[in-house]
Write a structure and sequence with these properties.
Blueprint: H1 28-38, E1 41-43, E2 49-51, H2 54-62, E3 66-67, H3 71-74, H4 102-113, H5 116-140, E4 143-145, H6 146-163, H7 170-184, H8 192-218, H9 224-233, H10 239-253, H11 255-270, H12 272-280, H13 285-295, E5 301-306, E6 310-311, E7 317-318, E8 323-327, H14 328-331, H15 366-383, E9 388-389, E10 409-411
Parallel strand pairs: 2-8
Antiparallel strand pairs: 1-2, 3-5, 4-10, 5-8, 6-7, 9-10
Helix pairs in contact: 5-6, 5-15, 6-10, 6-11, 7-8, 8-9, 8-10, 9-10, 11-13, 11-15, 13-15
Bound molecules: protoporphyrin IX containing FE.
Length: 413
Amino acid sequence: MSGTTTTRAGAGGMLGFDPTDPGFQQDPYQHYRRLRESTPVFRSPAGFWVLTRHRECDLVMRDERFGYPSPAATAPDTPDGTALPGGFADQRHMLIFMNPPDHTRMRRVLRDTFGPRVMRSANGYIEQRTGQLLDEALHNGPEFDLITALAHRLPFGVICHLLGVPEPDHLMIEKWAQDYLAGVSPSFTVSQANHQARDEALTGLNDYFLALAAERRRAPGEDVLSRLAAAADQGEISEQELLGTCILLFIAGHGTTTNLIGNGALALLRHPEQLARFRSEPELAASAVEELLRYDSPSHLSIRVAFEDVDLGEGNVVGAGEQVIAVRGAANRDPDAFPDPDTLDLGRTDNRHLSFASGIHVCFGAPLARTQGKVALGTLFRRAPGLTLAADRFEYKPSLLSRALEALPVTTG
Ligand code: HEM
């Protein structure tokens, strides 16, 4: 690497904290805190940087000297190592992995695609689907898994609704979307089998959306896919970018929102005094969702690469080409950015959490995610006022990226 550094290795090897530690999943925040207090700008022996303070995490996401690693480095191979067929989309064609100027162009198209009509329709769907899912869960109760019953099914339905995916295809798409995400997420358990499933899922999703886009071209509707197809026909985006966007909406918008609803419900149920406020002060709904996003963030990392040497101060110079992991989950508990960071306070003001990232890649779906959080949690606790946890301990998926509960058993009493 170029430049110099005075950082020292903290406990926990490559990342400065040990995600395989048995206690990590239950409380990653104390592990983050130890690293932030000892080595907030940590240079891993493996040659990348791990940032746990709000200041530096925010900086690398906003500063144009940082961006996504070269697309070739992130593009997956097919199971036999050959390139995917030419017309197929992979990570290179997804907004989230792009740098300007492609990123600027794609983001503009997506903004135009999600006009007021699409958003009104999505908001109506969120209300209606939440009611329907809670009818089913409460009818089958008294005990149910909140992740399966609501947190997972609501956001999945929202993306299907946006793209106009017909109901009978939902299960197939869901399996592919999960396999694909499991194969591209930084995790300590990704295997060769995950990679194979990821590439098969990518092929399945490409084929599926290619056929659905052809149908929409024959009979355009008000959905996002019809609008994307029109943008492709006008030469604003490529056919691969159209397909890549369909896939991206699932991988960016589904699991993350599941985690907001799941982690948010768990945090409220573990803090009865805050839950009482949530119920009795409906005007707190907006700040409550922001605080739940900060307190137990749905996704914990962003990865960037330095395009040139960047001096982060205190003798830490990130060399051109070096990768940086911004641990947003840690930055959200930085006492320099949030007074009493480990306290859940639904009325918190000046809440500049990084759960939707910052800078040019700031979450495109944040308004939809916020609405889902508000409607799902608001309706849940209104319709099930006696809801309590039906277990003492909860397991999380072994992902470094996502803070994802495996299940959240609850009971209406
Ligand atoms: C609570 C739920 C959500 C969270 C926590 C979340 C978080 C994020 C984060 C952290 C990023 C930036 C990642 C990075 O640059 O490293 C991002 C980008 C993105 N998100 Fe979300 N997201 C959520 C929901 C959604 C939804 C519902 C959608 C779509 C309907 C969506 C679509 C996107 C897209 C398209 C991008 C790429 C933006 C770009 O690169 O310019 N997200 N999201």
